[in-house]
């Protein structure tokens, strides 16, 4: 699709949604970079339906998926300024804006998906969401983005020693580079689109990502060993512009919060289904899935990474509270 056509399609979509929203007293515009049908997009749609029910149709939500309103960094600023009302963003892009968001983005901070849910659904998760208020944002709820694990073309990885000297693609992030280095491997930052050919030609041995990405990218075709070490579980977060929030009555604010929290269960279910479908396809293709690993040494190796990135006392306390959570 040409640029002109894509802009035209976006405008037509906007007009269609605007027409559907004319019956509402308040229409909240929501941004997501993921495509239509993606678990986060569908969850915000479900939130909108619940919110409309709670307010007798007075408040509606228009979901602009596929980065129609811009990429995540741009949409965060637009949400802070009140141009966008709702925004679903990965926790990562907030790291340089809201220090508290750095902690859930740390490697091995969560021991399992259940541990992550227990942390985010409790007091700690509430404290992190509350930190958004000082940055013209209201933190509403969390969504899942799965766990990232290592995959490679060379051998099964079951121990820390197996990683020694191997070359893994990482996102262009200092924290990711330091994480891989602390595990004894060599990090190679590169764009996502170059990974398949780089594994195929031996430029790198592998990469790391979640089940759906490992499958949909075709990386399982050239890197048949997938070790479920789950080194990162970076949550997604749904935020609201404080400007839009302050325009609502206390009753409507409560309705927005309730609908957002309820949408979390919708998203988690959709994400679990998406992961299961990807896993089934990968296993059927013959990839070797390594589940029997001792994560202890992997976690212990992260000490210098934590020392480098968690320097503030309040963040150290947050890490300790998360680690103490069952």
Properties at a glance:
326 residues, alpha/beta, five-stranded mixed sheet, four-stranded mixed sheet, 11 strands, 18% strand, globular
Radius of gyration over alpha carbons? 21 Å
What's the pLDDT, averaged over the residues? 91
Going across the biggest sheet, name each strand in turn.
2-1-3-10-4
Sketch the topology as an H/E string, one letter per element: HEHEHEHHEEEHEHEHEEHHEHHH
Number of helices: 13
Global geometry: globular
User: Approximately what portion of the residues adopt beta-strand conformation?
Assistant: 15-25%
Question: Quick one: biggest sheet?
Answer: 5 strands, mixed
Question: What percent of the residues sit in helical stretches (DSSP H or I)?
Answer: 40-55%
The computed structural class is alpha/beta
Low-confidence stretches: 1-21
- Count of DSSP E strands? 11
Distance N to C terminus: 49 Å
Blueprint of the fold:
Blueprint: H1 3-20, E1 26-31, H2 39-54, E2 59-64, H3 72-80, E3 86-90, H4 113-120, H5 123-130, E4 137-143, E5 148-152, E6 167-170, H6 174-182, E7 186-189, H7 195-200, E8 206-209, H8 211-216, E9 225-232, E10 236-241, H9 242-246, H10 250-284, E11 288-290, H11 295-300, H12 303-309, H13 313-324
Parallel strand pairs: 1-2, 1-3, 6-7, 9-11
Antiparallel strand pairs: 3-10, 4-10, 5-8, 5-9
């Amino acid at each position: 699709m040409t640029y002109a056509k894509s802009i035209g399609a976006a405008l037509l979509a906007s007009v269609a949604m605007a027409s559907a929203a004319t019956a509402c007293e308040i229409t909240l515009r929501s941004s997501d970079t993921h495509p239509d049908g993606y678990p986060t997009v569908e969850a915000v749609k479900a939130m909108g339906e619940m919110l409309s029910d709670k307010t007798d149709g007075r408040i509606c939500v228009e979901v602009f998926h596929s980065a129609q309103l811009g990429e995540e960094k741009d949409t965060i600023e637009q949400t802070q300024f009140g141009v966008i009302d709702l925004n679903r963003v990965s926790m990562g892009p907030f790291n340089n804006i809201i220090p508290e968001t750095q902690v859930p983005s740390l490697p091995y901070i969560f021991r399992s998906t259940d541990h992550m849910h227990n942390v985010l659904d409790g007091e700690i998760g509430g404290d992190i969401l509350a930190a958004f208020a000082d940055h013209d944002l209201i933190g509403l709820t969390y969504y899942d983005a799965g766990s990232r694990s290592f995959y490679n073309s060379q051998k099964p990885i079951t121990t820390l020693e197996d990683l020694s000297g191997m070359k893994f693609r990482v996102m262009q992030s200092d924290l990711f580079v330091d994480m891989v280095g602390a595990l004894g491997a060599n990090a190679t930052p590169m764009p996502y689109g170059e990974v398949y050919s780089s594994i195929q030609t031996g430029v790198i041995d592998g990469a790391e990502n979640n089940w759906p990405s490992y499958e949909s990218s075709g990386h399982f075709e050239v890197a048949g060993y997938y070790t479920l070490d789950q080194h990162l579980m970076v949550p997604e977060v749904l935020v609201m512009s404080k400007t839009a929030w302050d325009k609502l009555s206390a009753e409507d604010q409560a309705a927005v919060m309730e609908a957002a929290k309820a949408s979390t269960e919708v998203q988690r279910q959709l994400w679990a289904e998406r992961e299961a479908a990807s896993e089934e396809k990968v296993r059927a293709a013959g990839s070797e899935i390594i589940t029997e690993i001792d994560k202890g040494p992997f976690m212990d190796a992260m000490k210098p990474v934590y020392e480098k990135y968690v320097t503030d006392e309040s963040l150290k306390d947050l890490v300790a509270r998360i680690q103490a959570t069952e």
